[in-house]
Amino acid sequence: MISLAHAADSAAQQPDPLMSFLPLIVIFVLFWFMIIRPQMKRAKEQKKMQEDLQKGDEVITTGGQLGKVVKISDQYVTLDIGGGTESIFQRATIQTVLPKGTIKDL
Questions:
Q1: Among 24, 38, 60, 90, which residue's CB has the most CB atoms within a 10 Å radius?
Q2: Residue whose C-alpha is closest to residue 39's, from 48, 50, 31
Q3: Is residue 95 within 8 Å of 89, Cβ to Cβ?
Q4: How far apart are CA 41 and CA 50, in angstroms?
Q5: What 8-state DSSP symbol labels residue 14?
Q6: Within 10 A of 90 (CB to CB), how many other CB atoms are there?
Q7: What's the predicted TM-score (pTM) here?
Q8: Within this chain, do residues 21 and 62 fall inside the same structural domain, yes or no?
Q9: What is the CATH number of the domain that holds 69?
Q10: How many domains would you assign to the chain?
């Protein structure tokens, strides 16, 4: 008789499985909307900017190098970094496209 009473008590105290996973689901949804989704959007914009590079654009690389695009290939960009000096960079290192005339103002 005592074992039946314990079995009845433990059956009544078991939580709903959905309610136990609800906090994890809420945390994942918050992470998705606050961290993952904006990061994916920024990555897509960065990739589009790198694909739309044109000869004559003024850019900044991730290393902080300013230059004007002289030549473009599939993987590499040649930048004039001043004084007729040209350097070759990977397209992925281009961080920002500056407005025209920015380098002259510096």
A1: 60
A2: 31
A3: no
A4: 14
A5: P
A6: 12
A7: 0.69
A8: no
A9: 2.30.30
A10: 2
